[in-house]
Amino acid sequence: MSTSSTSITPLSLFVTGTDTEIGKTLVSAALLRGFTRAGLRAAAMKPIAAGAFEVDGVWHNEDADQLDAASSVLLPPGIRTPYLLKAPAAPHIVAEQEHVTLDIPRIVDCHAEAMQRADVVVVEGVGGFRVPLTDTLDTADLAVALNLPVVLVVGMRLGCISHALLTAEAIVARGLHLAGWVANRVDPDMSFADENIAAIRSRLARQYDVPLLGIVPHMQPISADAAADCLDTPHLLQTLRAARS
């Protein structure tokens, strides 16, 4: 079957982060594995990916490939990643160099198609929450256009408290529902990591009633299945279903 069950209204969420290289793809893949374990047909979108490599005449992106590997439903590449840019740099810069216009309505249309093919669609953003896409639009505008609950991935390293609070503030200011956050231990040598997590947890809970969905330890090599064990996917599913209704 190429469409989701008629008895299930599809769910979706948008995964963003406090910065680039802080584990959005790992957390997105972990969520996909958790949703699959819950019996859902889970698909991934990486609408904009900067950094591609060619294999046997086909262009790939490492993050998109990791998401595909964690999904139980594979979307056509053109729907999963409508914009695959060659150079690994800021999307708006690379898009201009490659004569590509990053069109948000096209991404919204691809997302609507993805929702017809799966029970749950995980949409991973690019970089942080305010990465420019054009001269006037950024990733926050994409999140608003999709109008999805947001999961915030916080890379646990020096400065993460301010980054987490500023990003959460920006998400809420756009009228989006911040469904939860994940602490990802990107720096295994970070001093006072537990205290930093506690500081973010208390403030996000108090200010926005946002739960901590889990703490992902530093992994080498990374494992989506192991990371899924660290996340409270059932609670997130309840939140997504409540937001849908």
Defining key terms:
single chain, 10 strands, Rossmann fold
CATH domain fold name:
Rossmann fold
Order of strands in the sheet with the most strands?
2-7-1-8-9-10
Number of strands: 10
Largest sheet: 6 strands, parallel
Q: Give the number of helices.
A: 10
CATH level 4 superfamily = P-loop containing nucleotide triphosphate hydrolases
CATH class: Alpha Beta
Distance between the termini: 26 Å
Structurally, the number of domains stands at 1
Strand content: 15-25%
What's the quick description here?
With 245 residues, this protein is an alpha/beta fold.
Protein described:
The structure is a single chain. By secondary structure, this protein is α/β, with parallel strands linked by helices. The chain has a single domain, classed as 3-Layer(aba) Sandwich (Rossmann fold). It is built from 10 helices and 10 strands. α5 packs across α6 and α7 runs parallel beside α8. The radius of gyration is 17 Å and the shape is globular. The relative contact order is 0.19.
Write the layout of secondary structure elements.
Layout: E1 11-17, H1 24-37, E2 42-45, E3 48-50, E4 53-55, E5 58-60, H2 62-70, H3 77-80, E6 83-85, H4 91-97, H5 104-115, E7 120-124, H6 139-146, E8 150-155, H7 160-173, E9 178-184, H8 193-208, E10 212-216, H9 224-228, H10 233-244
Parallel strand pairs: 1-7, 1-8, 2-7, 3-6, 8-9, 9-10
Antiparallel strand pairs: 4-5
Helix pairs in contact: 1-2, 5-6, 7-8
